[in-house]
Amino acid sequence: MTRKSSTAAANDTTATQSPTSGAHGARPMRLSYLIGQLDRIVSRRLSEALAQHGLTLPQYTALSVLRARGRSSNAQLADRSFITPQAANEVVKTMESHGWVMREPDPMNRRIVLLSLTEAGNALLGQCDEAADRVERAMLDDMDTESAHTLHALLHNCARNLRSA
Q1: What's the CA gap between 25 and 50, in Å, rounded?
Q2: Total domain count for the chain?
Q3: Residue range of the domain that includes 55
Q4: CB count in 10 Å sphere of residue 160
Q5: Which of 129, 126, 110 is nearest to 118 (CA)?
Q6: Residue 23 falls within a domain, yes or no?
Q7: Which of 59, 91, 141, 162 is found 20 to 30 A from 71 (Cα to Cα)?
Protein backbone atom coordinates (compact mmCIF):
# COMPACT_ATOMS: atom_id res chain seq x y z
CA MET A 1 0.00 0.00 0.00
CA THR A 2 1.41 3.41 -0.93
CA ARG A 3 1.13 6.50 1.20
CA LYS A 4 -0.22 9.76 -0.21
CA SER A 5 1.65 13.01 0.09
CA SER A 6 0.46 15.47 2.72
CA THR A 7 -1.01 17.71 0.01
CA ALA A 8 -2.91 14.81 -1.60
CA ALA A 9 -4.19 13.69 1.80
CA ALA A 10 -5.36 17.24 2.59
CA ASN A 11 -7.10 17.48 -0.78
CA ASP A 12 -8.81 14.12 -0.20
CA THR A 13 -10.01 15.35 3.22
CA THR A 14 -11.51 18.44 1.62
CA ALA A 15 -13.26 16.36 -1.03
CA THR A 16 -14.81 13.99 1.52
CA GLN A 17 -16.03 16.41 4.16
CA SER A 18 -19.72 15.62 4.01
CA PRO A 19 -20.15 13.09 6.86
CA THR A 20 -17.88 14.91 9.28
CA SER A 21 -17.85 18.54 8.18
CA GLY A 22 -19.23 21.24 10.36
CA ALA A 23 -21.86 23.79 9.44
CA HIS A 24 -21.23 26.28 6.62
CA GLY A 25 -18.08 24.67 5.27
CA ALA A 26 -16.27 24.52 8.59
CA ARG A 27 -13.34 22.16 8.90
CA PRO A 28 -14.28 18.52 9.29
CA MET A 29 -13.98 16.88 12.69
CA ARG A 30 -10.49 15.56 13.17
CA LEU A 31 -10.11 11.81 13.05
CA SER A 32 -8.47 11.91 16.49
CA TYR A 33 -11.56 13.71 17.84
CA LEU A 34 -13.91 11.10 16.34
CA ILE A 35 -11.81 8.27 17.77
CA GLY A 36 -11.83 9.95 21.19
CA GLN A 37 -15.59 10.45 20.98
CA LEU A 38 -16.09 6.80 20.03
CA ASP A 39 -13.80 5.72 22.88
CA ARG A 40 -15.87 7.63 25.43
CA ILE A 41 -19.16 6.28 24.08
CA VAL A 42 -17.92 2.69 23.93
CA SER A 43 -16.39 2.97 27.41
CA ARG A 44 -19.65 4.31 28.85
CA ARG A 45 -21.78 1.64 27.14
CA LEU A 46 -19.39 -1.17 28.14
CA SER A 47 -19.24 0.10 31.72
CA GLU A 48 -23.05 0.08 31.91
CA ALA A 49 -23.26 -3.43 30.45
CA LEU A 50 -20.48 -4.80 32.70
CA ALA A 51 -21.97 -3.24 35.84
CA GLN A 52 -24.88 -5.65 35.48
CA HIS A 53 -22.33 -8.41 36.13
CA GLY A 54 -20.65 -6.59 39.02
CA LEU A 55 -17.55 -5.80 36.97
CA THR A 56 -15.85 -2.53 36.04
CA LEU A 57 -14.29 -1.82 32.66
CA PRO A 58 -10.71 -1.91 34.04
CA GLN A 59 -11.48 -5.28 35.69
CA TYR A 60 -12.93 -6.65 32.45
CA THR A 61 -9.90 -5.44 30.52
CA ALA A 62 -7.51 -7.01 33.04
CA LEU A 63 -9.37 -10.33 33.02
CA SER A 64 -9.36 -10.29 29.21
CA VAL A 65 -5.62 -9.64 29.17
CA LEU A 66 -5.01 -12.54 31.55
CA ARG A 67 -7.09 -14.84 29.36
CA ALA A 68 -5.26 -13.75 26.20
CA ARG A 69 -1.72 -13.60 27.62
CA GLY A 70 -1.80 -16.12 30.43
CA ARG A 71 0.07 -15.47 33.65
CA SER A 72 1.31 -11.90 33.97
CA SER A 73 3.03 -9.71 36.51
CA ASN A 74 1.22 -6.70 37.92
CA ALA A 75 3.41 -4.40 35.79
CA GLN A 76 2.63 -6.35 32.63
CA LEU A 77 -1.07 -6.39 33.45
CA ALA A 78 -1.09 -2.64 34.06
CA ASP A 79 0.68 -1.91 30.79
CA ARG A 80 -1.54 -4.22 28.73
CA SER A 81 -4.72 -2.99 30.46
CA PHE A 82 -3.97 0.72 29.86
CA ILE A 83 -3.89 1.59 33.58
CA THR A 84 -1.21 2.70 36.01
CA PRO A 85 0.56 0.12 38.21
CA GLN A 86 -1.11 1.73 41.24
CA ALA A 87 -4.57 1.34 39.66
CA ALA A 88 -3.67 -2.23 38.68
CA ASN A 89 -2.89 -2.98 42.35
CA GLU A 90 -6.41 -1.90 43.33
CA VAL A 91 -8.02 -3.78 40.43
CA VAL A 92 -6.08 -6.94 41.32
CA LYS A 93 -6.97 -6.70 45.03
CA THR A 94 -10.66 -6.53 44.18
CA MET A 95 -10.46 -9.32 41.60
CA GLU A 96 -8.52 -11.53 44.00
CA SER A 97 -11.02 -10.93 46.81
CA HIS A 98 -13.81 -12.06 44.46
CA GLY A 99 -11.85 -15.17 43.48
CA TRP A 100 -11.46 -14.13 39.81
CA VAL A 101 -7.64 -14.17 39.84
CA MET A 102 -4.95 -15.82 41.90
CA ARG A 103 -1.39 -14.87 42.70
CA GLU A 104 1.61 -17.17 42.67
CA PRO A 105 5.35 -16.60 42.80
CA ASP A 106 7.22 -16.62 39.50
CA PRO A 107 9.29 -19.83 39.49
CA MET A 108 12.12 -17.99 37.71
CA ASN A 109 12.17 -14.98 40.04
CA ARG A 110 10.59 -15.30 43.49
CA ARG A 111 10.39 -11.50 43.85
CA ILE A 112 7.81 -11.35 41.04
CA VAL A 113 4.21 -12.38 41.63
CA LEU A 114 2.30 -13.74 38.66
CA LEU A 115 -1.44 -13.33 38.27
CA SER A 116 -3.64 -15.85 36.55
CA LEU A 117 -7.31 -16.23 35.79
CA THR A 118 -9.33 -18.64 37.96
CA GLU A 119 -12.23 -20.77 36.75
CA ALA A 120 -14.62 -18.30 38.39
CA GLY A 121 -12.90 -15.40 36.60
CA ASN A 122 -13.06 -17.24 33.29
CA ALA A 123 -16.77 -17.99 33.75
CA LEU A 124 -17.51 -14.34 34.60
CA LEU A 125 -15.46 -13.22 31.62
CA GLY A 126 -17.58 -15.41 29.34
CA GLN A 127 -20.76 -13.74 30.59
CA CYS A 128 -19.23 -10.29 30.18
CA ASP A 129 -18.02 -11.13 26.67
CA GLU A 130 -21.66 -11.56 25.69
CA ALA A 131 -22.39 -8.06 27.03
CA ALA A 132 -19.39 -6.64 25.15
CA ASP A 133 -20.55 -8.42 21.98
CA ARG A 134 -23.94 -6.69 22.27
CA VAL A 135 -22.28 -3.28 22.55
CA GLU A 136 -20.08 -4.00 19.53
CA ARG A 137 -23.05 -5.26 17.49
CA ALA A 138 -24.92 -2.04 18.29
CA MET A 139 -21.90 0.01 17.22
CA LEU A 140 -21.61 -1.85 13.90
CA ASP A 141 -25.37 -2.15 13.37
CA ASP A 142 -25.63 -0.56 9.94
CA MET A 143 -22.37 -2.00 8.56
CA ASP A 144 -22.11 -5.09 6.42
CA THR A 145 -19.66 -7.79 7.50
CA GLU A 146 -17.00 -6.72 5.00
CA SER A 147 -17.10 -3.10 6.19
CA ALA A 148 -16.89 -4.21 9.83
CA HIS A 149 -13.84 -6.37 9.04
CA THR A 150 -12.26 -3.49 7.12
CA LEU A 151 -12.84 -1.12 10.04
CA HIS A 152 -11.28 -3.65 12.41
CA ALA A 153 -8.21 -4.00 10.18
CA LEU A 154 -7.85 -0.24 9.72
CA LEU A 155 -8.07 0.47 13.46
CA HIS A 156 -5.55 -2.30 14.14
CA ASN A 157 -3.19 -0.73 11.58
CA CYS A 158 -3.62 2.74 13.14
CA ALA A 159 -2.74 1.38 16.60
CA ARG A 160 0.28 -0.49 15.19
CA ASN A 161 1.46 2.61 13.31
CA LEU A 162 1.33 4.81 16.41
CA ARG A 163 3.01 2.19 18.61
CA SER A 164 5.94 1.99 16.20
CA ALA A 165 6.19 5.75 15.54
Answers
A1: 40
A2: 1
A3: 30-164
A4: 10
A5: 126
A6: no
A7: 162
